[in-house]
Amino acid sequence: MNRSHAREQAFKLLYSMEMQQDYSDEQMDLYIENNEITDEEMKDYISDTVHGIKKNKEEIDTHIINNLKEDWELKRIPKINVSLLRLAIYEILYKKIPYKVAINEAVELAKKYGEENSRAFINGILASVVKDTMVED
Questions:
Q1: What is the pTM of this model?
Q2: What domains can you pick out in the chain, each with its CATH number?
């Protein structure tokens, strides 16, 4: 399994779930089937990531909110960016992925899928989260 590819698939699923406001296992199973994901390790990674983010969503979102500019709210952030931030924060705080790896992967996905300023926005929020939580790699 290529971890970057698995991470990208998890991000796409998270974004889809966010757009539809449907975080069900049925939605995840449908995504895996429609994208012909057959690698068991990748399925496990996606499932673990989605369930972990769903379980810890409130705490993850608090980390995002606490690092936004004063006049910003979570609902103002494009859903692509929210999905990338949730994924990276989950990996850093709960999966103990080295923060440099998680941030780099999120920034690369932001370049590919986000708006022009997404890369800098995501990098800034994640750097602040890491600083606030004093995560070491």
A1: 0.93
A2: 3-133 (1.10.940.10)
